[in-house]
Amino acid sequence: MSEEPTWVLNIKRGILxxxxxxxxxxxxxxxVTETDVVGKCSTEYKVEDTYRRxxxxxxxxxxxxxxxxxxxxIAMHSVKYNVHSKVQSLPLMKGYHNCVQTxxxxxNILTNSECSEENxxxxxxxxxxxxxxxxxxxxxxxxxxxxxxxxxxxFSHRSDLLFDHKEKMHSDQFSTQEILSVFxxxxxxxSEDIRPELPKLLNNLIxxxxxxxxxxxxxxxxDISRQGFCRKNSDRTKRYFRDSLPMLGxxxxxxxxxxxxxxxxxxxxxxxxFLAVLSVxxxxxxEMIQAVTPLxxxxxxxxxxxLSVSSMAASxxxxxxxxxxxxxxxxxxxxxxxxxxxxxxxxxxxxxQALRSLGNIGYSSKAERTLSQCVTTxxxxxxxxxxxxxxxxxxxxxxxxSALMEVFVNTEEDSELRINAYxxxxxxxSRMLLIQIHEMLERENSNQVGSFIWSxxxxxxxxxxxxxxxxxSFLESEEIAKQF
Length: 484
Description:
Elements: H1 6-19, E1 30-36, E2 39-51, E3 54-62, E4 93-104, E5 109-121, E6 132-140, H2 173-189, H3 198-209, H4 214-224, H5 234-248, H6 251-262, H7 268-278, H8 286-292, H9 303-319, H10 327-340, H11 351-361, H12 368-376, H13 382-390, H14 402-409, H15 415-425, H16 431-442, H17 447-462, H18 469-476, H19 478-483
Antiparallel strand pairs: 1-2, 2-3, 3-4, 4-5, 5-6
């Protein structure tokens, strides 16, 4: 259920993973890619033994082959770079996951599942003599029972078996006292000048504040704002608190930011900095996005705020490909679409930034009709039409892109616009698209457009970029190679 804590759901994921069997045929060995609590891994199934009504199956995984396994607590923002390799996890650890499953073939019931996982820290290890962890898990079928009472549980969404690394929040008095203690140290040691130990104290402060919930942060800010707290430099102490908030990267920090903004404790410049830092948060939640969406209601909203909020949503969607099904993301997209309106820049000066924000988010197939109108209406300014084309770059390929093709094949359109439409189409390449591009090139009368496309396709045919190999394979196929 959605109300259950993350740690409870992770335990359930671990139990269900022990049950999981991805074999289509229980009589044959098979290698598959399986998703469970340890990650998305290459998995080998072997039928070990069949005796009367019992079948034993051995499941094994090399954890180095697993993706979606690690979690990084760093301030720097990064983008995954996937390559075809046997090593997909951080090679500092060497691990194996093995399960032995016993099935009753007469009743199709899993009667026993024994799983073990072994991890070795590779630096400074020699065989199994280094730092090592070992886990054992055993599930045994006891009995089958039925219930006359059916309880219907409501849930807002489904999730997979991947481990959820969401950090736990605390609100206990102990963490509050620890944080206040750090503020007292900052007050004592930084009263007259900036000392060398400041970075260490701030890092410690941020680490402690990350585990605090909103109520705790409110209480702490109230305490450090008291007249008797840090009389030497009260303003600087509160400044340390405000500057630490964007580094927390959680819902509590966003709510605290909203509260401080409502009581005029944040200047406009500080607000931009806060959102800029928050936009590169590694793991934003939909609750964080919901919390910052009301900022877009401000009539004098800054362009930087619009782009920062969309970047945060893009980070969330990169880790949750079905984010368009979330109410919070849908509400944000609708908000940006209201800025776009009918693409009239004169009526709404925020049109360009709203289009760029939609492009940042992607995953917004519902915006396809509005974007297509912006692209094809010739009376709109060039920058509006180019921004609308660019907004297609992250929208799923199952969305219609006929508007881009319409602009691309129209030789009366501006060359810059046609080139942008071509690049937008190439975000979702197919054999049919490449054939259409070839036919267009044969009658192309613009040297600028024709030269750009030929050079672009030539570079794609020679690229070693792993993300572009599917386009290269299209260009090297016998059918397409004859035409280019």
